[in-house]
Amino acid sequence: MNLSQIGELSLLEQIRKKFEKKSRNILVGIGDDSAVLKPINNNLLVTTDMMVEGIHFNLGFTTTYQLGFKLVSINVSDIYGMGGTPLYILLNIAVNKNTDVKFINNFFDGVKDALDLYKTILIGGDFSSTDRGMALSATVIGYVKKHIPRSGANVGDRIYVTGNLGDSACGLELLKKVNNSIPLLQTSRKKQRASRLRYLRLKSSKDGLSRNTVDPLLRRHLMPKARDPKKFSLYATSMIDISDGLLIDLSRICNESKVGARIYTEKIPISPELIKAACCLAISPMDLALSGGEDYELLFTAPARKNIKAIHIGEITKSERVIVDASGREKPFTAEGYQHFRNHK
Ligand code: ADP
Ligand code: MG
To answer: Where in the chain are all domains bearing CATH 3.30.1330.10?
Structure first.
């Protein structure tokens, strides 16, 4: 059954049932002209982010379940990036009216699992039909006692990240490679996706990459998880979530804080999966870790004397922005990238 057959009203009824959540702070949730929320005793955080088919995702790569999960994750990540806690979410969706209802239900399953993970409640949204690609947008409302801005880094602070970098970009490269080398068959998207995945695994295993290497990289790209900053948010002086790549997002902190940064290649966390897969793709794993986007790890600074449970990758400097390689050589970096060390060997 497709959307035009089931109709918006009955779809909304299903969503309302699926997401029925009682909370003392929600006086009215899904179902009226507006949600009604009790005020809270903290500063509010509000953020929104959209995903458009053909620009941010390709339905030949991703399931709608993964898409729903990712839409929530990338929005929650912006709340975490301020040191906050997410509370509520609104979802706007534009899809073709011939879309199968199953497709939408899978999307909402992904949304639901992510909302349970981040303990966030769906309080409303809107549907529209479109005769073009699918467009998705979410708005998250959260709170914070004291927000952590991009502008608070001080000279001498240490620079930290919360996890491995480059995996998501590597996952995307793997997917793109398959897309370019497998002919498009006239079958359903689901079958196409399954055959691409089979082909990707087969081809990768011929290149010496097992499923245990490929799958985590794909998952990182298709279903990223946002990192909760609670463990260190008390000490962080500046913070940002890494959506566009370490060098771009570190440059944003430097620009806003009017400081520089020195980071060490040896300290950048790179997964063993990335090293193996990047080698097969003939891409430098360090390039992916420094410039690849969509890892959604947090990047933050904190005073050196604090004991921080995260990965220390460098220091804030007065103005110079450099990467130091294993042998101690320094190369300047900008948001656009860095001079390759290997050209100078
Ligand atoms: P209106 O026409 O007054 O804007 P709608 O008929 O679009 O209201 O929506 C009815 C209710 O269902 C509202 O509470 C709205 O927030 C909720 N809703 C609509 N679309 C979505 C969606 N995609 N996700 C969650 N809630 C939704
Ligand atoms: Mg409406």
So the answer is: 3-144
The C-alpha angle with vertex 228 and arms to 261 and 138, in degrees rounded to 5, equals 100
Does any ligand 1 atom lie closer than 6 A to the CB of residue 15? yes
pLDDT above 90: residue 254? yes
CA of 28 to the centre of ligand 2 (A): 16
> Range with the lowest mean pLDDT among 141-155, 190-204, 248-262, 317-331?
190-204
Ligand 1: residue whose CA is nearest its atom 12: 31
The pTM score is 0.93
Q: Assess whether the C-beta atom of 11 lies below 6 angstroms from ligand 1.
A: no
Considering only 177-181, 272-276, 309-313, 326-330, which range has the smallest mean pLDDT?
Answer: 177-181
Half-sphere exposure at residue 211, Cβ-oriented, CA atoms within 13 angstroms: 5
Q: What is the mean pLDDT of residues 132-154?
A: 97
Ligand 1 centroid to Cα of residue 194, in Å, is: 33
Write the CATH number of the domain with boundaries 150-180+196-332: 3.90.650.10
Length of the chain: 345
Integer Cα distance of 330 and 264 in angstroms: 9
Q: Looking at the chain, which residues constitute the CATH 3.90.650.10 domain(s)?
A: 150-180+196-332
**Superfamily classification of domain 3-144:** PurM-like, N-terminal domain (3.30.1330.10)
